[in-house]
## 1
Amino acid sequence: MFEITLNALSAILLVTGGVFALIGGLGLIRFPDFYTRLHAGGVTDTLSPLLIVAGLILQSGGTILSLKLLLILLFLLFTTPTASHALARAAMAAGLRFWGGERASTDSEDRR
Amino acid sequence: MRHIISLCFLLAGLWLALSGHTKPLLLGLGVVSVALVTWLSHRMDVLGAEHDPALFSWRLPVYWGWLAWQMVLANLEVAACVIRPSRLSPQIVEVAAPQRTEIIRVTYANSITLTPGTVALILDGDRLTVHALTQNSADGLREGTMEHWTRWLETGQGRTAEP
């Protein structure tokens, strides 16, 4: 009985993680400009791996594999914001304009 | 010296956890690789360069737990935007980053980027420029809840303004 509950919970987490990855991908297509798409990519980068790793840990139980999975999650959560930030900075350096609102673009001009 | 020893222990623990081997030859190779990495870090002069006692405090796991919850909330917000793009109102927000040490300031900026709906664009001194996806995420940032949490992580106080 315990085994079945664990498997069901793990399946739910894995499927939810997959759905959020899909939503992130959908956002990449639907959002209007580079900067907003960065946020959509963030969904695939953060919540999706969190749920998928949680689901996998329920499968692997208290083995050394769980520790490795947690380490993967830790490194991922440390590196993806850095990558997002680097992309945003590169876009700003290339002079890519913000979508929506003149205020936004003039603000960034002042900063540079 | 203290940093060298603590790095050795950390690396050795990591190596053991990842390999799971106990054969003498492999253990020897592990020792060599730990020594190599420590020597390289020493040569690169990065040992202890970003050392901060706050990072070894019990407050860090508490902060991570809170951050994970914020991540879930922020993700739901962005997911709602994907389903109904009319909710989008991207804007640039400038907030203060009054954290005392650089490492905590970077932690703050990284936490902002880690919660979808807000991406840190520029960290200049104690001013932080952020791109926010919706009015809601911009307002959430201006409220400064995350800033209070990072300052609590840094000093153990300053969460009084929390709602």
Note: DSSP finds five helices and no strands in chain A.
## 2
Amino acid sequence: MKKNGAQILIDALLKEGVEVIFGYPGGSVLPLTDLLYESTLKVIQVRHEQGAAHAADGYARSTGKVGVCLATSGPGATNLVTGIATAFMDSVPMVAITGQVKTGLIGNDAFQEADVTGITRPITKHNYLVKDITQFASIIKEAFYIASTGRPGPVLIDVPVDIQIQETEFVYPETVNMRSYKPPLNGDSVQIQKALRLISQSERPVIYSGGGVIISGASEQLREFALKFNIPVTTTLLGLGAFPEDNELSLGMLGMHGTVYANNAIMESDLIIAIGARFDDRVTGKISEFAPYAKIIHIDIDPSAISKNVAVDVPIVGDAKHILLELNKEVTQSDLGDWLLKIKEWKNKYPLVYSRSSGKISPQYVVEQIDKITKSDAIICTEVGQNQMWAAQYYQYTKPRTFISSGGLGTMGYGFPAAIGAKVAMPDKVVFDIAGDGSIQMNIQELATAVENKINVKIVILNNSYLGMVRQWQELFYHKRYAYTPISGPDFVKLAQSYGAVGLRVEKEEDVAKVLEQAIALPNVVVIDFIIDPGANVLPMVPAGEAINRMIGGMS
Amino acid sequence: MKHTIAALVDNKPGVLARISGLFSARGFNIDSLAVGETNDPTVSRMTIIVDAKDERILEQIKKQLHKLIDIITVLDLTEKEFFERELVLIKVNGQNTDNLQSAIEKFSAKVLSADEKTTIIEAVGSRAEISELLNGLKDIGISELVRTGRIAIAK
């Protein structure tokens, strides 16, 4: 049956199991939005295209499904760029659909024209400009396949407005076979045997687990692996939730704002088993001094992640789940008593601590209360900065896909629209955005989206009237010259109310728990403005460029 | 160290931009790059001469290239025995001097046109041969030079 481009796209999205699109209309997507209006696909209309990209990203991270966002040509598409780059850095499966000017006008500097495939080439896993309607269906099929397999990532499809109207026979391909793209799955068995040998010889092993474990759906296998071999586990920021932090083998997060015991364990380890992690500079600190005694096993689906930053002894390229299943077949007896004892000592000696003596609300306390009240069962989204690190440190993550944050790109303004996406995907979950007063102002317009669609996320603003993380660096490394970091904001309570949300303010520590409970109980979008201690810092901390066991602060 | 890499890629628009973008974004150095269709018209072959400081950077270049969706295979020809050739077109000043004649003979170059003012010659050779030829012609005076970039094939 002949169908036009717009109908082909909608039918293809339905075949891919897409339920919701986050988008914004415009001149170059009119044929498409006109048909979407009567389709069964749910469209969440945002207030700024960046919000659409982050919401699709939050939807994807909370479910593992491909998130879909839509924008018109030119400025609509360029507004998606930060969201696409955010998804690219954190390997989030996403398909971004953009309108483009008519094929005949491309390259003519037409109204609302931008070279979107050119602009997004370095920040997408792949992208397409549809020039021939007969190719459209297979492009969509490929786009979803590429976005969701291997190391996932965003794929952009740029669809000229005349392609949306042209007709062709619609046949949606059942399978994809690309000679140039064959993501690996199973690890090499020789390498797996080598890894097992190293593990059996190791006296001080550590598992360093990243976002790849969550993407691969391997949390269960990771837990089995760690428990079976009795190896302590530290996770990256994006790996939070892959291993239950209430397990005694958990070391929490490592790196710049990691725990002292995680960083110590890495530095004294004789074997690091890295799984779905990429030895990012925030994790390794000074690379030449990183883990001096350790051999390294690196399990990753992306060969280019291996030996990029540190030399690896045993690389295993493939899917974390498949490889962990293989490793878990090994029957083993290990005696790591001394090592585990040492780690226990570090844990006792250097717990995460914060001061509650300022008379103002401690931000860490707010996060702890959220953890307590939600029984570690909420989805926590964050912005970027101090709020993000406190949310990482003081909430106990026990399940995958419950911590959603922009790790690689570090995008302020990410958390709130991502929370909208997560709540749309998981309507029965309590979804928080833990924000700062700086970050929240970057995509505050999405309050209208949340209220209009009754997407009842709870926004916690840790309000210190500063761009806190930069202020912290200025305090420590720039002679306390607070250049451009004190910031004012609106009255967030009134602002929330003007959007039709509930706005609450908390200024005393004794009210924190009560107001959080109230906010969760309310069937509304709620903004809670916590006036926190402006001097609170994220500790412990590895100064940039130092070895990760040279931490300042946070030690009792 | 210089490495000769051959990449088989889908013959699609934008592939060259992806590759050149990758090199600039990641700070890799390209010495020379030549592209052309293969015996399969849906496949293009690129010969890329890269300058990699060390083994790790070379590995990264190969892996990052391979990661691009449109790239089918990446071969490091430097690992094996291979032939490398470049074609040059050279416009030299002046007439048929003895120097010019001996250079043409020595490198089996072809004279494409010659008049009192200029001679255009075509030569094919390895990098070393081409540099030697160009050196030999320096005194005569090269007024224009065009090079294809090197192409290579493994034995």
Note: The first strand of chain B starts at residue 2 and ends at 10.
